[in-house]
Amino acid sequence: MSHTQPPVEAGSRPTAAPAVFPRGVFVTGTDTGIGKSVASASLLHALRARGLRAVGMKPVASGCERTPEGWRNEDALLLQAASAPRPHYDDVNPYALPQPLAPELAAAQAGVEIALATILAAHARLAAQSDTVVVEGVGGWAAPISATLDQIDLVRALDLPVVLVVGLRLGAINHARLSARAIQADGARLVGWIANDIDPHMARADDNFEILRRRLPVPCWGRLPYLASPDPQALAGRLQPLG
Fold first, then answer.
1. Phi first, then psi: what are they for 184, rounded to 5°?
2. Which of 36, 45, 50, 58 does the annotation list as catalytic?
3. How far is the C-alpha of 10 from the C-alpha of 6, rounded, in Å?
4. Is 36 assigned a catalytic role?
């Protein structure tokens, strides 16, 4: 797999998905608020365009709104909408925590204990109805899931390779390289990264992107442009899973 292959441009014809695409991937980021959910939803659409049954999962989501159906998280709903077949919300997001806090704090405030077994059971139901499950983590790689769980614990339990979303803004090179090193140092399999232009005013964004292409140890799966209202289905053509 080439480290210098350009991302697929929007509107280009999708190619057949590699037969070796994994049964799932874990999507993490260089920080919170860098577009993991949009990248994950776009990846789901890209995989579906290649003929795969692909469903999304956000095991733990903090910052939810009460609805007649229960607590709902905007990012988890985005993943659910991008999935086919359409999964039950409670499987997409087993832990919907009301307060927009770090999950450990949000869970404590809600009086909820996050259990790995609950997440694994929901993932098993999603895996049974799909070819691949795109699992979105919380915040950056080192952000804990709960008082007793780190993201690497979930990655190990699910045996998933990791995709890193890099928010292109000042400091992205340092954050991306440190994140990649931490993922690999924890023993996880980093298989690719996705660039996301989150700062439309970033100076020399293209040059920063090229530095990252040269320095990160895995292929770039694509680059998503800055959009005020991103449409994951329209952005899918800019991603090439597995590089």
1. -70, -35
2. 58
3. 12
4. no
